[in-house]
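FORM 7B: Structural annotation worksheet

SECTION A. Query
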Amino acid sequence: MTDRRLSNRMAQALPAEVAAPRYDRGAITPGIVHLGVGAFHRAHQAAYIDECLAAGETDWGISGVSLRSAETRDALAPQDGLYTLAVRGSGGEKLHVIGSIGSLLVAPEDPEAVLAVLADPRTRIVTLTITEKAYLRAAGGGLDAAHADIVHDLANPRTPKTAHGFLTEALARRRGAGTPPFTVLCCDNLPANGATLHRLLIEFATLRDASASSAGNAGMADHIASHVAFPSSMVDRIVPATTDADRARIAGELGIEDAWPVMTEPFRQWVIEDDFPMGRPTWEKFGVTMVGDVAPFEDMKLRLLNGAHSGIAYLGLLCGHATVDSAFADPAIRRFVDALWQEAITTLPDDAGLDPSAYTAELAERFSNTALAHRTAQIANDGSQKLPQRIIASAVECLEAGTELVHLTLVVAAWIAACAARGKTLPEGHFTDPLDAPMTALLDQQLPANETVTAVFDMAGFARDHAERQTLIELVAVHLVHLRRDGPTLAFAALGIEAEGQ
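SECTION B. Predicted structure
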């Protein structure tokens, strides 16, 4: 069926109602390298860049890099990098074939090719969506210098495995060649993501500078600290996993096959700190908000959207809901989310031009989108990496301010309970976490709730060294007692929320 596969040639035969690139893809110059070519990038940054290219800004094509799997490359290379973005709302679905990704590399197969494109003078921006866990932070937030991949990259700087290793080696090569450094734009859900990645890369480069294997490239830590821009950004678009049913439906609408279409919602948002010494696309023409400080927008999104998503995911799984819209339609979970938002809103600045009421009203509409089928199990992945910025940060600020936080702490307890439910009331491996091995060993001991929560906090580094850490542990433990005794029903009742069917 390869002759009926989406490609440059077959794109000319698409139905008129399907939007497709109207620009000459052969005339595009690659100006951006993206690390982590997953579904979110293809629904978000790549879609914005597609609009830039269509408007004539032809020197900002994307060279995509997968740091681990060849899956995306294998799906898209036969399609000349083209794929379908299906925007699904309650009013229907619109299809748009995206052409902004010009090439795809798989780092483990050919790290030298990745370094070459990063060192290419045409590359002026490197963007990242590698997920929170790929930043390889230790429990205290610094670089996990003992991680096997970090150890490898320090010993083998010319054949790196991590984003840290690739970025540092490429910047060293550019410095050696007299090529100005690219701008590094983090698009992952990390607090102050640009500053965080900047700090982690300086930590990595400091270790590398001290390593004999990097002889001739000393001083990279100072170079990165002084000469490389790391603007922060905030990204927002819900992107559920693509299913075989999605592929079949899209193929029927296109009249040709697409191995990996991407599903998404109509809403999208991108807020970026405007710090690009090597230039940038005129993103503001296409709906991107360019600001001097992204922090307030980032906090609102992390604490209201992502925090609610985590609560919906873990409580939804415990209540038997497979999708976000199903869970959010559960009256008890909906009331819980409304109360969670009120707790988190108290931690947001009131002088930054934010409108949390309008934002949460929009979130409620997005969570109710029945066409999206966003799986709770997908959102549940990597809780130990996500909860610090989504929930723990808000909870700590509530404690410091003396405001209520009982709904925030239930999210943490629900995460622990959902982890414990895998292989019992939930399927084995229903969702995953970097701490799965020690978490499973701990939860199998069935220790009292307070001991369990304390051990989890130690393991994940939650609220480490904070004066109110023990108070937070005790609040989470109370919820865990309720969840263990009678599931979400008792946990909701303790908050004055009547569970569905009561």
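SECTION C. Observations
Residues 75 and 260 are 6 Å apart (CA to CA). Residues 469-494 form the longest helix (26 residues).

SECTION D. Sign-off
Analyst initials: ____
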